[in-house]
């Protein structure tokens, strides 16, 4: 068995860990660009804690708070220029996956002039040091070497598309996991980000590059997330703060662990398929992946009957259920699926799915069409 494992991020967890362990941040530089979205870093308290911590360390900072969901190339170029103009020597990403992913691209663009294609092909050799404070518990961006951006003009037919920048230089140096920042996450964001984390762990087990270490991490992340399912199903929609804090903590750590999985394995075909509802309809990223799971996993189970590579039994053992029970839980979480038009189904089924080749049984175009139709038809 061959393993080549890299995970250079120091993960620090616990209430008030940013301030308590601020000496780790002090090693990153003299002036930070804090990269956030419009509101979440402020309403979650993460921004105030970051400022307090940087000040206690004698580090200066400036704020870029214009990151939108599914951040665009234009947004990261703007923030990169700001970091350069302000002489920032490290980047602090604070928020959900969108601000954290933006922060990673900014860490590169602050140092180097790059065309968009150079950025997406990772034609760079340095990046500013990065620290992350996640305020959602799903993407695991704090432990991955990926920055997922919306290329506003696309690469083929000028329509926007989600593309990834992948480089070991994008691994954050530090990830501070403090679940207190997630207590106000509403039902939809809590559930959709939990589904994203679950999809990373599940897809990680079904990727060609899965290995013993990534499977160990994936199984643990799946167990942790499945242990939160009852509470997710009974989410107190009128009062998100009543969701059990120990489950918030579990979901946050599980999402970082699931990030460590995809950092090794990449993702499988549902992630590529999920980008289409997100780009075209604005569907949340985690939900978009979840919509395909029932059909995708049923297809995998069917196909692997004729294959020596059987992975569904190990997955079911991690899930602690048979597939049908898991599908029931997932569908309860998701509610009714969005419906695609016949034109969308036909067009989307013909698009190349980048992660198909990384799936342990490679779906052909007809299989992808089947999964689109069963999930959104
Ligand atoms: P997000 O787009 O970062 O945030 C979704 C919404 O939640 C935003 O409105 C945000 O507000 C709000 N929010 C964030 N934290 C909050 C808090 N603590 N309390 C209340 N509201 C809060 O969503 P996400 O699901 O975390 O990230 C999705 C992005 O990550 C996608 O672009 C996806 O492609 C990417 N992704 C990356 C990786 C990776 O490995 N890098 C993996 C999976 C997904 P604000 O707008 O104010 O911030
Ligand atoms: Fe994801």
Key structural traits:
alpha/beta; binds fe (iii) ion; 377 residues; binds NADP nicotinamide-adenine-dinucleotide phosphate; 12% strand
- Biggest beta-sheet profile: 6 strands, parallel
What does the average pLDDT come to? 97
What topology, given as strand order, has the largest sheet? Answer: 1-8-5-4-2-3
- H-E string: EHHEHHEHEHHEEEEHHHHHHHHHHH
* Tertiary shape: globular
Note down, in words, how this protein is organized:
With 377 residues, the protein is an alpha/beta fold. It has 18 helices and eight strands. The protein has helices at residues 17-20, 22-26, 40-43, 46-56, 73-85, 97-109, 116-120, 187-205, 212-226, 229-233, 245-265, 269-281, 285-290, 293-303, 312-319, 323-334, 342-350, 365-376, and strands spanning 10-13, 31-37, 60-67, 90-95, 130-134, 146-151, 161-166, 174-177. A six-stranded parallel beta sheet has the order 1-8-5-4-2-3, sandwiched between helices. Helix 8 (187-205) packs antiparallel against helix 9 (212-226), helix 9 packs antiparallel against helix 11 and helix 17 (342-350) runs antiparallel to helix 18. The longest helix is centred in the last third of the chain and has 21 residues, at 245-265. The structure holds NADP nicotinamide-adenine-dinucleotide phosphate and fe (iii) ion. Residues 37-40, 43-44, 69-70, 95-99, 101, 135-136, 138-141, 144, 146, 148, 162, 181-182, 184-185, 189, 193, 196, 285-286 line the site of NADP nicotinamide-adenine-dinucleotide phosphate. Fe (iii) ion binds at residues 139, 196, 200, 271, 285.
């Amino acid at each position: 068995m061959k393993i080549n494992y890299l995970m250079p991020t120091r993960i620090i967890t616990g209430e008030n860990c940013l301030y308590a362990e601020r000496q780790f941040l002090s090693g990153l530089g003299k002036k930070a660009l804090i990269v956030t979205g419009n509101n979440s870093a402020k309403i979650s308290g993460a921004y105030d804690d970051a400022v307090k911590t940087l000040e206690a360390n004698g580090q200066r900072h400036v704020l870029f708070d214009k990151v939108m969901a599914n951040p665009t190339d234009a947004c990261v170029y703007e923030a990169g220029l700001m970091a350069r103009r302000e002489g920032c020597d490290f980047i602090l990403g604070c928020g959900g996956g969108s601000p954290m992913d933006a922060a990673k691209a900014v860490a590169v663009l602050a140092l180097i002039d790059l065309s968009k294609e150079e950025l997406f092909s990772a034609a760079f050799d340095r990046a500013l040091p990065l620290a992350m404070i996640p305020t959602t518990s799903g993407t695991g961006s704090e432990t991955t070497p990926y920055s997922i951006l919306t290329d506003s003009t696309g690469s083929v037919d000028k329509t926007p598309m989600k593309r990834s920048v992948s480089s070991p230089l994008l691994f954050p140096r530090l990830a501070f996991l403090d679940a207190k920042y997630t207590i106000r996450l509403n039902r939809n964001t809590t559930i959709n980000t939990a589904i994203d984390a679950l999809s990373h762990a599940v897809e990680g087990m079904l990727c060609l590059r899965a290995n013993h270490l990534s499977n160990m991490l994936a199984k643990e992340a799946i167990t942790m997330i499945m242990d939160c399912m009852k509470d997710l199903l009974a989410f107190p929609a009128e009062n998100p703060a009543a969701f059990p804090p120990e489950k918030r903590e579990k979901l946050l750590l599980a999402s970082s662990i699931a990030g460590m999985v995809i950092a090794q394995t990449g993702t499988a075909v549902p992630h590529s398929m999920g980008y289409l509802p997100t780009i075209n309809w604005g569907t949340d990223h985690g939900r978009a992946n979840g919509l395909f799971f029932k059909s995708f996993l049923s297809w995998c189970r069917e196909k692997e009957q004729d294959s020596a590579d059987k992975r569904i039994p190990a997955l079911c053992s991690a899930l602690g259920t048979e597939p049908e029970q898991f599908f029931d839980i997932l569908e309860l979480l998701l509610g009714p699926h969005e419906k695609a038009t016949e034109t969308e189904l036909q067009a989307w089924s013909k698009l190349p799915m980048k992660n198909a080749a990384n799936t342990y049984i490679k779906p052909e175009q007809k299989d992808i069409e089947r999964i689109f139709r069963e999930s959104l038809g």
